[in-house]
Write a structure and sequence with these properties.
40% helix, D-Maltodextrin-Binding Protein, domain 2, 12 strands
Amino acid sequence: MSDGQNRKTRLSRRHFLIATGGAILAGIGGGMLLTRNSWQASNTQQVKLKILGRSAYHEEINNKLMDLFRQRYPNVKFDYLPKGYIDEYQLFVLSMRNRSTEYDAMYLDEPWIALAIDNGWLEPIDGADLSGYPKYLASWGKRGSRVYALPLTGNANFLFYRKDILDAVGVGRPETWDDVLKAAKRIKEKYTDAGVKIYGFSANMRKGVAIAQDVFPGFLYPFGGKYFASDGKTPALNSPEAVEALEFMKELLKYSHPRTTEWTNLTEYSEAIRRGEVAMGLVWNGWIKDVDVPEKSQVVGKIHVMSYPRQKIDFGAQSGVWFYTVSTFSQNKKLAENFVKFATSLEAQKTAHLEAGLPPTRLKVFKDPEVKSRNRLAEEYYEIVSVVRPVRTSPRWMGMAESVGTYLYLGLTGQISSEEAIRKAHGEMVKVA
């Protein structure tokens, strides 16, 4: 993600048209070198690589990676198709089901990987470098000894907090969710009730997919609940721990930003954070990437980040990593494979982090002296990425998320009881599973 949801656009097979176009001119040979064995052409001839990917800050990151690749291989021309979250998922699934040759490489969210591997939609990546990744990330895109997806964008869902505000109300770094609630109450008394536009908490609690994957896991898992059983597929939401987590969210909502359940877009939420209106909140990396940019932020140097506060257990943080993959239907697989290996390399991740704000997945980037000198939060992000864990583990998660989030929202806003919300959300998961 997970990272935010655009308005859902429904597509049907009979309305879905993908132009397969002409055959791609040729591939690029092994080792990222143009070889006579694979392609014989003059230096002025170009070969095109088409990529399906995400819009927003993901597009900025991928544009930088494509620029870096072109600096080495100017014969390559890229066609990057940026899409909103739901739109990209639907287009990815429908194009693969139709065995479309339209896309060579695909930039995919974490829960989509298992679906793609299980359906045979991804080409194995030979000679993939898995060094320097957290253990789970190194294995997520593998089946047996074959690698089908390489981690790139190290999205994590975590807590940010303003140290200056928490110190002022006598709480400090929140170690538990109870600490967060205590701080939020004191912030309301000291700031909000006094007419100062500072609120204790916020998150992307919009109805639907947003609350299901951007917010609720941050409470559910530390409270001892879970979405799925140990097999990663069987729904396990219906529990006293899940009800308790939702009840806690209802209490915290009283001390939260008034738009917490109705942010119209993620830019709006990010801007509120940068204006200093939110003292604590759950975010993905990209939502706070500009907090230390003086031209954009009024909270430079004041924001800190940490994994989820513990409650009954210490869970860590939810992962929402984006991976690069090669379509098994591509007519230019070797070129796509070479780009994927380059884009996810340590060198490319470091450059994209420094120049385009990529949250890296190779942990060595955070330990790099140049990165540490330019990123005040490098060590804190290192600690988060080191403990990220998958939550949306079922290949069928995307078929559940909207319904789950709808019932969570109804429970959060008091339209139904928390018990009913969890029970019905679980029931929707069972239907899809």
